[in-house]
Specification:
The protein has a domain of 162 residues: FAD/NAD(P)-binding domain, CATH 3.50.50.60. Helices cover 32% and strands 21% of the residues. The chain has 14 helices and 22 strands. The strands form 6 sheets. The protein has a 7-stranded mixed β-sheet with strand order 7-6-17-18-19-16-20. Strands 9-2-1-13-22 form a 5-stranded parallel β-sheet, with helices on one face. β3 and β4 form a beta hairpin. The radius of gyration is 22 Å and the shape is globular. Bound molecules: flavin-adenine dinucleotide. Flavin-adenine dinucleotide binds next to α1, β16 and α14.
Amino acid sequence: MSKLLIYNQMDRRNFIKKSMLVGAGAVIASNPLSKAYGFSPIGLNKKAICIGAGFAGLAAAYQLKLKGWDVLILESRNRIGGRVFSHLTPENHVIELGAEWVGASHSRLIELCDQFKLKLNNNQFDTHKIYQGQYTPAGKWSYSKSWEEKFQSLLENFRQLPDDEKKELDQLDWWRYLVNNGCSDTDLDLHELIDSTDFGESIRHVSASAAIEEYAESSEKNEMDFKIEGGNGKLAEKLAEQIGQQNIYLSHTVTHIDQKEKVKITCSNGKTFEADKLICTMPTFAMQKVKWSPELPTEKTKAINELQYARINKHAMSFSERFWKEENFDLISDETSHYFYHATKNQKGPSGVLISYSIGEKAAIFGNRAKEKAVQDVFSVLEPHFGSLQNKLKSQVNYYWGTDKYSMGAYALYGVNQWHRLRPILSEPFLHTHFAGEHLADWQGFMEGALVTGKEAANQITS
Ligand SMILES: Cc1cc2nc3c(=O)[nH]c(=O)nc-3n(C[C@H](O)[C@H](O)[C@H](O)COP(=O)(O)OP(=O)(O)OC[C@H]3O[C@@H](n4cnc5c(N)ncnc54)[C@H](O)[C@@H]3O)c2cc1C
């Protein structure tokens, strides 16, 4: 999730749960009797399986290893990282087709980077605007003063509310909440453009409760603060090294989960695996396809069938020169190309990558378009303000998350009356299985949320 914000003074409250920390020098328990398939041959250790090699599954497996468990990861894709998807361009730049920003409040992720000696580079931007055909540079536009003050007071009031009153906001969508509180005209249009970039769909579809909780708790640049040098995928690589590559089974799609005294997993390639415990980090769309024996509780199945995911399209274009000039360039627009940002900040020029990022219906349009047509759309928005771009484009790559085979979306989208109702049901363990993933996290929609829920699930099964 990206969180674009133009309010200046955001208070931040650190509400991340304190979890048991393992010191930087901790040694992973290794079992000298372990063979290639990871599990101890004479059953010395407890065994666990994690489904998914995204950040939640990797974080869970890493924590289990630290606690001396034998652990395996089963992953459908032929790569690790899941929705963290770093990509090397033909021009040798690393860009992100999935998660981009690390937030200043994302303490577990920052701690892991510190532990694995991964450098976090500043990835903050100053936002330009194209609205109703007019271009305005960064620093020259904002919400109206009166609305800015009102919004700050709404956030402040929210922070003081008792929990049960906070929950009442789940009955409204974010657009309705803003309108009911006096937001109108250009301020409302700007909220739609800016906040929908965060949620991946129109703010008319987002729970007001989920939205305000995030805005009330976020860092000054609203969690758009850093990026891991060399790509966010580096953290997946480091975790995988610690877990042991031989314990991660790529191209293994789980199709059947059987829970009796133990857990028995069957994959689409016919391979089976047994363990004492299971951590399931699949997005809900993928969970729907798995056969559970015994069946999942009815209310969990209903929750899985109800939750939506946001559509995001990333169209990355490599240009021979950085015509946008500023390294910290990003731009919001009311065109189909909804948002642009400089994706090669801190990487060598003169060439550079601009990502066109669209959400919701706009993402679906881009996702279905031929690249040539998509580029013409982008040029028609940018060229009136930045000059001819035709001869500057060197390469391009597009990824549409709305049709990603495993998630059918970028991240979970909690709608009206879902944040407080569905999340606890989805988080509830079932027999030997514990659940983790961004969709269950306080930092929902973020890498941090995936890491924290993965670690927590591992702590639950080992406690
Ligand atoms: C376009 C986009 C932009 C984003 N921007 C940001 C951002 O700026 N900052 C941020 O912090 N976060 C951002 N995110 C969100 C972040 O990527 C996710 O919150 C996080 O990576 C989710 O991790 P996860 O482990 O919960 O899920 P995943 O990464 O989806 O991992 C689950 C894994 O399970 C696997 N799987 C599914 N079904 C099966 C099966 N049957 N058998 C075996 N394996 C299976 C999947 O292949 C997947 O690898 C963004 C995401 C996207 C897509």
